[in-house]
Amino acid sequence: MDRCFIFAAGTFYGLRTAPAPGDLVIAADAGYHACEAAGVVPDLLLGDLDSIGVPQVSVPIERLPVEKDDTDTLAAVKLGMARGYTSFHIYGGTGGKRADHTLANLQTLLYLRRRGARGWLYDDDFLWTAIEDESLTVQRTVEWGLFSAFCLGDRAEGVYETGFQYPLEDAVLTPDMPLGVSNHILEPSAVISVRRGALVVGWQLPPLSGK
């Protein structure tokens, strides 16, 4: 398997894709509580432990300095990449009390993509990833499901959206105009592509049972 699961300290909305044997599971600081809520035992607890302290746990702990350039989540991403993982499922990376960490994790999706990996950031009934100079096919899983795309950079050129309520053809998206917000997926499969530039894209998922 090539999947790495990272549980961060934001809001945990529920587990959609469960780890399997061969996957790497990292709890980033207080993301350990999300692991507990999901019934998942992490392979490693990683972070500066400023949010959780030093817990009495039976899993290995790698403590990071408080003063560092990387967020705990990005440190977990780098560790997973160093071990050869290319698909990253990030839970608890949005919400919470820290909008700055949500923005940091959206940027982390592009960090992964530029290094040949793919990140999936799970929000509340929404899934985010990043694309750059490429196309991505999105499956409609919710009737009239929402879809949004935002520029991650100075500008994104040659943007096409097909299979959506509001199609785009050879459009330009910029970081100062949220043109790509709140579209709807009409077709069973829709395609978002960008000829030059980077986008963070997200689409609606069906509600988890019990919510």
CATH architecture heading of the largest domain: 3-Layer(aba) Sandwich
Low-confidence stretches: none
Distance between the termini: 30 Å
Strand order, main sheet: write it out.
Answer: 4-3-2-1-5-6-7-14-9-12
What global shape is seen? globular
CATH homologous superfamily heading of the largest domain: Thiamin pyrophosphokinase, catalytic domain
Number of contiguous helices: 3
Mean pLDDT: 94
Query: What's the CATH first level of the largest domain?
Result: Alpha Beta
Provide the gyration radius in Å: 17 Å
Provide the domain count. Answer: 2
Beta fraction: 35-45%
Biggest sheet architecture: 10 strands, mixed
Helix content: 10-25%
Structural class of the secondary structure composition? alpha/beta
Please provide the ordered H/E string of secondary-structure elements.
EEHEEHEHEEEEEEEEE
The total strand number stands at: 14
CATH fold label of the largest domain: Rossmann fold
Structure explained in plain terms:
It is built from 3 helices and 14 strands. The protein has 211 residues and is of the alpha/beta class. It folds into 2 domains: 3-124, Rossmann fold (3-Layer(aba) Sandwich); 130-204, Jelly Rolls (Sandwich), CATH 2.60.120. The strands form 2 sheets. It has a 10-stranded mixed β-sheet. Strands 8-13-10-11 form a 4-stranded antiparallel β-sheet, with no helix packed on it. The two termini are 30 Å apart.
In short, what is this structure?
By secondary structure, the protein is of the alpha/beta class.
Search tags:
single chain; about 210 residues; alpha/beta; Jelly Rolls; 2 domains; four-stranded antiparallel sheet
